Amino acid sequence: MSSEENRANMLAEFRSRYRLTSHEFIKVWKFYDVDWSGYIEIDELQHLVKDLVRSVNPDATDEECQHRFRRIKSYYDANKDGQISIQELSDLLPVEDNYLKRFHDLKMNR
């Protein structure tokens, strides 16, 4: 299985188990944006990914979490600025009604 398939499988499993409300999504954002910078920076993203991976596989090693972190950062940091914006996080986490995505799509269609 390729690394892209592994990433997709881990995220698919997470998404099948969890579906956040918009309120829960904002709580996750506030929890991991420790310094309130408006971005999930590298160290904050490492904690988020470790928690995400271990929510699916409690026995995941630190090495596996680090591997997933590198893959998620590479894939979801769309503008490659070394941090995750709220829009980029909304692409990663499953949200029942993704208002950010709707707003972004509406804005892009104007």
Overview of this structure, please?
By secondary structure, this protein is mostly helical. It is 66% helix and 4% strand. It is built from 6 helices and 2 strands, in the order ααβααβαα. Strands 1-2 form a two-stranded antiparallel sheet. The longest helix has 15 residues. The termini are far apart. The model has no long low-confidence stretch (mean pLDDT 77).
Summarize the structure.
It is built from six helices and two strands; from the N terminus they run H-H-E-H-H-E-H-H. It is mainly alpha-helical and 110 residues long. The N and C termini lie far apart (41 Å).
Keyword list:
single chain; 110 residues; mainly alpha; two-stranded antiparallel ribbon; 66% helix; 4% strand; globular
Structural class: mainly alpha
- Taking all Cα atoms into account, the compactness measure Rg is 14 Å
- Molecular shape: globular
Q: Strand order, main sheet: write it out.
A: 1-2
Helix proportion: 55-70%
> What is the mean predicted local confidence, pLDDT?
77
User: What is the distance, rounded to the nearest whole angstrom, between the alpha carbons of the first and last residues?
Assistant: 41 Å
Identify the quaternary structure here. single chain
Compute the number of strand runs. 2
- Helix and strand string, N-terminal first? HHEHHEHH
Low-confidence stretches: none
Q: Strand content of the residues, in percent?
A: under 5%
Number of contiguous helices: 6
- Describe the largest sheet: 2 strands, antiparallel
